[in-house]
Design goal:
The protein is an alpha+beta fold and about 150 residues long. The chain is about 20% helix and about 45% strand. The protein has one domain. The chain has a six-stranded antiparallel beta sheet. The longest helix is centred in the first third of the chain and has 29 residues.
Amino acid sequence: MKFIFPLLLSISLLSCSSDKKERINQSDKCYNDNTVKYKYDSLTFWFIEDYENLDLKNVKIYKINNGKKGLLPHSTRIGKSELKIENPLSLKSADTIKIVFENNKQLNLYDFKNTPDYGGKIFLGCSFGRYKLNEEQIEVMDGNILRIY
């Protein structure tokens, strides 16, 4: 009887260690995938704090891939300071999204990374999870909202 508790404890610790290793492997798999995986069929750029009052009427959004620059069509929700891209093109980790405002102010978003998604303890796959803006790493909100601040 006195051997049952240590046996159960050791089994429990081994199980936790195995779960932790599995989560690390899943995170590495997502992080190293160079193609961004979208949860939804749109991307929303939400301008807050310093960027909240910028004029978004004539904003241009470009995707830059290997030096090639392509204009991305988008819709604008002025009252909410949002720009939305429906059906975003394939985005790679090394790509850059350049947002150019009417006053020639520019923002560059880059270093796009996937992160693991979980439903409880179940691994659901990888999806767009973080990016950089002005050297700061920012988490993606709700799978498709990129906060610009």
